[in-house]
């Protein structure tokens, strides 16, 4: 249970880990959706191909777009892109990095769906049964007297167990097409893995220093946004408490007590509606520069700048370190493979 | 159990998470309801379509209203919309934001029901088996003496006698199910494209600074309502306790002589009473409470707490003689030290 809590906390600690979690959940959901989905080939020559290939392509597009919709970094990216420069310069490499990372994450669930579909073979069987060269399967005396149209109609019924009477031909043809489908599936997996590997292996050869800078500032933007939202929420709570307190006193006409100092502090000096609106307005139109004043650093330098900003605590030692430094892409890849294998072996 | 607690803790961390959690639970309930629902197509030409459209439309409407009901933000939004202006100006953008958030969350469970219905296909088959052209399929049972319409209406019913060992029914079912799934995936694709466009393009048109303000004030309204309810509950409790204690004391004064209490009991009782009095904020009569609650609705206070911040703090010293010079000095000092 403790390990689970550590994992949960780590996943929540920043947006990127959280998105990794969502990405994993979506990959699982994609495999689960495939197994729950009732695949029913229409078994008619006009519709087989559309149905089979449609089911191979449309759900991945859907999962890809879902990855964009669920990813909060999309909003962060567009805000950073659209904001006025204000007192803080904009860095296009940071935007590019964020876009690439969002796209990479969104590609995992579609890849899982395509792999599972190809490994399972039903969609290929549905799409390509009419293209079969029936002579290969022997005993084609069955097809001797038929016209072209009738032959195609018969072939189109192969994917449907209950509509095609000749079991041996159906089984032989199904196995043949499934075998091709699985080969395509493995080739697809191999290509995706190789591409990911090449990107990860080769990239450090170029611009590693610049990459470190970009990664730092993109994490910073993400964390800053989260901190700002949290500060606003705390402020709203204290503001409401003090406002209600003031209201009660107004009604009674007496000044009897005072609100606790912690609430006053949390107001950070912003006590009126217009001031708060100005704070929020300027946060977007004129972001502050990335330069901390010396007196602030001295005041906060009791170890709060580094560790706790990320929500990481020192007490977890080796497990969290291992999680952090382990090769994330390798983890994602292994996880994806595990999902596919378990889905195929159901 | 602990896992559940962790998940619950995460969702309770703020009001928006709670709403998201409830929304997801409703969606799961909707899926579970569909899988446990015993769907029985009547297989009669006049009633097939009615039954299927009923099953496809009535539960989503119920789920939608349920979603609106259980959402906390509905109450906050209605409050903010209907209240008189009073001392606080109204911001229509906040009401619009709350309304759109509420509608989006309430629409999830109905959409899930409709999509699961379409992807499953049974209801489509029930509704549209009559519209299929039987000439497309071979093997239609024509020795039963029934007309074509009645036969097509019986297609959704597997157990019917006219269809034993017939591949016709299965072929028609597959055909209609294929359409149903295509419609379902198209709707899914349309919705997700809409969502993705909304995410990507909205910041280009929307003023992000204004939306930061709107989000802050809608969260503030929610928090304020919760805190006000909590404060009222606490006030009611202290009011009740004081009222009961006062009653007992009044009763006691009538019957026996009041005996002097030992000094330490008097002191702690006085401290307790002082604390309680503070929590009562000076609201000690029924008319005052009624006036407070009335005014909270008709004339909400201004969003400005500067007065309370710059007011001198009252001294907590237990002066028996308030006109004592030491006490006055202490009050003056506390004004400067805060």
TrEMBL record, chain A:
GO cellular component: plasma membrane
Membrane topology of the entry: Multi-pass membrane protein
Keyword Hydrolase: no
One example GO MF annotation: monoatomic cation channel activity
Transmembrane region(s): 21-37, 49-74, 175-199
GO biological process, one term: ATP export
InterPro entries the record matches: CALHM
The entry's keywords: Ion channel, Ion transport, Membrane, Transmembrane, Transmembrane helix, Transport
Compartments it resides in: Membrane
Record bears the keyword Membrane: yes
Family: Belongs to the CALHM family.
Protein name: Calcium homeostasis modulator 1
Organism of origin: Lates calcarifer (Barramundi)
Gene from which this protein is expressed: CALHM1
TrEMBL record, chain B:
Signal peptide: none
Record's keyword terms, sorted: Ion channel, Ion transport, Membrane, Transmembrane, Transmembrane helix, Transport
UniProt xrefs under Pfam families: Ca_hom_mod (PF14798)
Keyword Secreted: no
InterPro entries xrefs: CALHM (IPR029569)
UniProt membrane topology term: Multi-pass membrane protein
GO biological process terms on file: ATP export
Entry's localization field: Membrane
Molecular functions (GO terms): monoatomic cation channel activity
PANTHER family given in the database record: CALCIUM HOMEOSTASIS MODULATOR PROTEIN (PTHR32261), CALCIUM HOMEOSTASIS MODULATOR PROTEIN 3 (PTHR32261:SF7)
Name assigned to this protein: Calcium homeostasis modulator 3
Originating organism: Lates calcarifer
Gene, per the UniProt record: CALHM3
């Amino acid at each position: 249970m403790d390990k689970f809590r550590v994992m949960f906390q780590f996943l929540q600690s920043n947006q990127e880990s959280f998105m990794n979690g969502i990405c994993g959940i979506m990959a699982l959901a994609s495999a689960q959706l495939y197994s729950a989905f009732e695949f029913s080939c229409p078994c008619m020559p006009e519709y087989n191909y559309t149905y089979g290939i449609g089911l191979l392509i449309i759900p991945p597009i859907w999962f890809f777009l879902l990855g964009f919709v669920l990813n909060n970094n999309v909003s962060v990216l567009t805000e950073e892109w659209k904001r006025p420069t204000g007192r803080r310069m904009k860095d296009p490499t940071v935007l590019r990095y964020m876009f690439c990372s969002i796209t990479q994450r969104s590609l995992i669930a579609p890849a899982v769906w395509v792999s599972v579909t190809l490994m399972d073979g039903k969609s290929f069987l549905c799409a390509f049964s009419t293209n079969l060269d029936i002579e290969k399967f022997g005993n084609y005396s069955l097809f001797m007297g038929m016209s072209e149209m009738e032959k195609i109609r018969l072939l189109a019924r192969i994917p449907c167990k209950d509509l095609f009477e000749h079991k041996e031909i159906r089984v032989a043809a199904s196995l043949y097409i499934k075998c091709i489908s699985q080969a395509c599936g493995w080739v697809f997996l191999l290509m995706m893995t190789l591409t990911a590997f090449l990107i990860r292996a080769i990239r450090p050869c170029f611009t590693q220093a610049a990459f470190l800078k970009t990664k730092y500032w993109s994490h910073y933007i993400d964390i800053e946004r989260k901190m700002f939202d949290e500060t606003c929420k705390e402020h709203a709570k204290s503001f409401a408490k003090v406002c209600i307190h003031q209201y009660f006193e107004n009604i009674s006409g007496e000044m009897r007590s005072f609100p606790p100092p912690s609430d006053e502090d949390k107001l950070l000096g912003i006590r009126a509606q217009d001031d708060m609106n100005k704070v929020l307005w300027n946060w977007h139109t004129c972001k502050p520069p990335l330069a901390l004043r010396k007196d602030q650093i001295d005041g906060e330098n009791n170890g709060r700048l580094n560790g706790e900003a990320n929500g990481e605590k020192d007490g977890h030692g080796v497990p969290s370190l291992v999680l952090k430094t382990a090769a994330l892409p390798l983890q994602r890849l292994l996880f994806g493979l595990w999902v596919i294998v378990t889905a195929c072996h159901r | 159990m602990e896992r559940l607690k962790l998940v619950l803790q995460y969702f309770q961390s703020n009001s928006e998470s709670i709403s998201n959690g409830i929304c997801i639970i409703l969606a799961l309930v909707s899926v579970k309801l569909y899988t446990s629902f015993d769907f029985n197509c009547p297989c009669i030409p006049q009633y097939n379509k009615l039954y299927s459209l009923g099953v496809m439309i009535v539960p989503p409407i119920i789920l939608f209203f349920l979603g609106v009901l259980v959402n906390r933000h509905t109450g906050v939004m209605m409050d903010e919309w209907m209240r008189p202006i009073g001392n606080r100006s109204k911001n229509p953008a906040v009401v619009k934001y709350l309304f759109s958030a509420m509608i989006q969350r309430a629409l999830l469970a109905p959409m899930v029901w409709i999509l699961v219905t379409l992807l499953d296909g049974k209801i489509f088959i029930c509704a549209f088996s009559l519209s299929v052209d039987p000439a497309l399929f071979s093997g239609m049972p024509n020795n039963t003496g029934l007309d074509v319409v009645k036969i097509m209406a019986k297609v959704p019913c597997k157990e019917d006698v006219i269809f034993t060992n017939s591949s016709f029914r299965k072929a028609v079912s597959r055909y209609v199910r294929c359409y149903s799934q295509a419609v379902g995936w198209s709707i899914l694709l349309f919705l997700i494209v809409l969502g993705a466009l909304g995410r990507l393009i909205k910041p280009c048109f929307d003023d992000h600074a204004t939306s930061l303000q709107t989000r802050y004030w809608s969260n503030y309204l929610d928090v304020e309502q919760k805190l006000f309810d909590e404060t009222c509950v606490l006030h009611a409790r202290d009011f009740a306790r004081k009222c009961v204690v006062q009653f007992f004391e009044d009763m006691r004064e009538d019957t026996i002589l009041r005996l002097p209490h030992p000094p330490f009991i008097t002191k702690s009782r006085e401290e307790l009473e002082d604390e309680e009095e503070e929590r009562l904020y000076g609201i000690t009569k029924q008319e005052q409470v009624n006036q407070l609650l009335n005014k909270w609705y008709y004339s909400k206070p201004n969003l400005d707490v500067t007065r309370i911040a710059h007011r001198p703090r009252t001294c907590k010293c237990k002066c028996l003689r308030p006109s004592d010079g030491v006490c006055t000095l202490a009050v003056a000092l506390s004004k400067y030290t805060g």
